[in-house]
Amino acid sequence: MSHSLEFEDKSVEMAVKKACDKLNIPREKLKHDVISYGSTGIFGLVGSKKARIRVTISEPTSGVVHEEQVAEKQKESFHEQTREDADSHIEAIHDEGEIHTFAADVKNLGRNALQRILDSITTDATISIEKSSDRIIFNVQGGNPAVLIGKRGQTLEAIQYLVEKIVNKHREEWVRIQIDVEGYLENRKISLQRMAVRLSEKVKRTGKPATMGQLNAHDRRIAHIALKDDSMVRTQSMGEGFLRKLVIFPRKNSSRKRRSN
């Protein structure tokens, strides 16, 4: 009669070693199937899973002689695994910065998560932190800014989204996160404001709409704000999805205003 036991650890090899030690079976005689190879999750921060194996015992061994002994081994394995899971969870709080009992230390959690992401993409990138009235701002210096920013800032926005999700995973009150690389956001803001004003002047001169191109929500908001006090034009986002066109239209009464001036 055969019996089966399950063991898990950070890797398949470690799970196999654990099974050999527990059952007193040499590595070459251990019969097992891999249930799961495990995963490290997103950048090793969230969603990690342990490797799991199923060991089949088809004959008595020095470590397992009777069915009662098998049951006892399984019971001991279960309790030890429970303790190890608890210890691993505590280590994860310290090593990875998961928010549990240390929920107040949001800045360090965000910094640790961001640093892990940066180290996976580039080298020699450092982080400084500042707190504004409504968000925590992480400023990145060094590394490869072009890679971190990406086309139209899409990589930077993806990194910001991920860090914000990690920071707020166990929080009831949402904390807003902003990540900047080498002053990119401020330079981008100035560039968009100038483009919006330039195109608005063209619209007022020709009486025809002008398009700023496909922009994300943050960039569209900058353009909207830049022209909100201009009574001769109006702005409108058009299209669907993450990137939309921002169109500047002449207001209906703008032509009369031009003739009266």
Tally the helices. Answer: 8
Distance between the termini: 100 Å
Strand order of the largest sheet: 1-3-2
Strand content: 15-25%
Question: How would you classify the helix and strand content by structural class?
Answer: alpha+beta
The shape is elongated
- Summed over residues and divided by their number, the pLDDT gives a mean of 78
Number of domains: 3
Backbone CA Rg: 29 Å
The total of beta strands comes to 9
The helicity comes to 40-55%
Poorly predicted runs: 43-47, 61-68, 81-104, 256-261
What would the keywords be for this entry?
alpha+beta, 261 residues, 22% strand, three-stranded mixed β-sheet, Ribosomal Protein S8, Chain: A, domain 1, GMP Synthetase, Chain A, domain 3, elongated, 3 domains, three-stranded antiparallel β-sheet
How does this model look, in words?
With 261 residues, this protein is of the alpha+beta class. The chain has 3 domains: 3-96, no CATH class; 106-182, GMP Synthetase, Chain A, domain 3 (2-Layer Sandwich); 186-260, Ribosomal Protein S8, Chain: A, domain 1, CATH 3.30.1370.50. The protein has helices at residues 12-23, 67-96, 106-121, 145-149, 154-167, 184-206, 217-227, 254-260; strands spanning 3-9, 32-36, 51-57, 125-131, 136-142, 177-181, 210-215, 233-238, 244-250. It has a 3-stranded antiparallel β-sheet with strand order 1-3-2. Strands 4-5-6 form a 3-stranded mixed β-sheet. Strands 7-9-8 form a 3-stranded antiparallel β-sheet, covered by helices on one side. Strand 4 (125-131) and strand 5 (136-142) form a beta hairpin. The protein is elongated, with a radius of gyration of 29 Å.
